Amino acid sequence: MAKEFDVVVVGAGPGGYIAAIRAAQLGFSVGCIEKWKNPKGELALGGTCLNVGCIPSKALLASSEEFEKIQHHADQHGISVQGAKIDVAKMLARKDGIVTKMTKGIEFLFRKNKITWLKGNGKFVAKTDAGYQLEVTGDEGSETISGKHVIIATGSKARHLPNIKVDNDLVCDNEGALNFPSVPKKLGVIGAGVIGLELGSVWRRLGAEVTVLEALPAFLGAVDETVAKEAAKLFGKQGLNIQLGVKIGEVKTSKKGVSLAYADKDGKEHTLEVDRLIVSIGRVPNTDDLGLGAIGLGVNERGFIDVDEHCRTKLPNVYAIGDVVRGPMLAHKAEDEGVMVAELIAGQKPHIDYNCIPWVIYTSPEIAWVGKTEQQLKQEGRAYKTGQFPFMANGRALGMGAPEGFVKMLADASTDEILGVHVIGLNASDLIAEAVAAMEFKASSEDIGRVCHPHPSLSEVMREAALAVEKRALNM
C-alpha cells in the first residue's frame, strides 16, 4: 500500500527542508523527497545551498580572507609573517567538513520531527480524490506515495551558455569552481553577478589573476548606484579586472587551459588565455522531470511555476516555493515561503512582505541591501530624502582595519518611513538585519536614530546614517 502523508515536500533545500520541519511542528505527517548525492555518492539533504552553494562558498571566502589578512594586513597590527602558504587541499577539506556537518544536522532535524526522507527523484503521477500521487525513484527502486498537500521546492541550477561546454574541470559553473585542486595562475569569470564576484574574489585572494567579463553595460545594475560605484572602485583596487559590455565569442579548451574570444564595449576584439574559466550567468528553475503534466500543471515561458502571493499554484493544495517561482533566488526567501505555506495549510494567516527581503553579496567588503534603491525611487517619482555615513568615521571599523564603505538610508520625504537601506562594508550581512526589522515595522529613520546603539560598534554607522537623513549625524 502506498505511503500516505498530509504534506509531501519535493526537494530538501532551504525552502523544502524548512517547509517540512514547520509542517511537522504543526502536527502534519510529512514526507520529503530528495535525490541529491554528494561527490562520495552519498545521498544528502540541503540542496544546492548547503552542498554546492551558500555554505561551501562562504567557507572558502572565509579561508581566503584569512590568507589575505596574513599576507597583506597583519603588518598593520605589528604582526610580521613570512612565507605564508595556502594548502588548497586542506582548505577544501575544511569546506567539505562544514558541509557534512550542516547536512547531517538536517538529517537529525528530520528524525527529531519525525519527517520521512523519501530518497530519490520525485515525479507526479496522478491527481486523486484524496490528493496527489508521486513516484519516487531511487537506488533501491521505485515506490508510489501520496499527499493531501504537495509543496514543490526543487530549486534551481546554473545557467549555461549554449556555445560553452561546462565540464567542471577547465570550464566550471559554481560546483566546479568550489573544488579547484590548485590555485589557477589566470582565471576567467563570465558574469559579474553575485556568484561570479564571490568566487572570483576567493581565487584572487589566493593568488589568481582574475578577469571578469560582464555582458551588461552597468556594474551590479540591481544595486543602488552609489554602492555599485563604490564597489567597482574597491574591487578594482583589490585586483579584480572587471570588463563591462563585452560580447563573448568562441571558447576553446586545450591541455594548456582555456582560450576565450570576446569583443569589448567598443567592439575591439580580444583573446583571453586562462587556466580555468568560471561561467556564472545566473540560474534557471529545476522544473523539468517533475511530471507536472500528469496533474495538469505547467510552467511559464521562463520555466517558473506561476503562483499567487501565498505561493499557491492554480491547483488546489499544490504549492511552489523558492527558486522555482517568481522573486529573488535567495535561500532565506525560500525559507520564509516554506514557513508561510506550512502555516497556510494549518489554517493560519501568514504573509510575506517581499519588499523586506534582504540581499547580500559576500565579497570583501560585503554588500547588503533591503527595500528600494535610489534609482527605483526616482523612476517611481517618489519624493525621498537620504542619509549616508562612512565606516571611516567609526572607531570600531578603524580598529578592525575595515574603514571602507558606508551605510545609506532612504526615507519618505514627508512621512520619514524608511524606504531602503544599503550597506557596503564589513559585516554588512549582519548589519542589514536591523534595517529589515525596522522596515517590517514601518519604522521611520528617526526611530533608528533615537535607538541607543552600543559603542564602539559597527552598528553605530546604521544609526548615524539614520540621523543623517535629517542632516543631524553626530560624528560627521
Automatic annotation (TrEMBL):
InterPro entries, per database record: Class-I_Pyr_Nuc-Dis_Oxidored, FAD/NAD-bd_sf, FAD/NAD-binding_dom, FAD/NAD-linked_Rdtase_dimer_sf, Lipoamide_DH, Pyr_nuc-diS_OxRdtase, Pyr_nucl-diS_OxRdtase_dimer, Pyr_OxRdtase_I_AS
Recorded GO MF terms: dihydrolipoyl dehydrogenase (NADH) activity; flavin adenine dinucleotide binding
Main location: cytoplasm
Residues of the Pyridine nucleotide-disulphide oxidoreductase dimerisation domain: 357-466
Cofactor note text: Binds 1 FAD per subunit.
Protein name in the entry: Dihydrolipoyl dehydrogenase
NCBIfam families, A to Z: lipoamide_DH (TIGR01350)
Reaction(s) catalysed (UniProt annotation): N(6)-[(R)-dihydrolipoyl]-L-lysyl-[protein] + NAD(+) = N(6)-[(R)-lipoyl]-L-lysyl-[protein] + NADH + H(+)
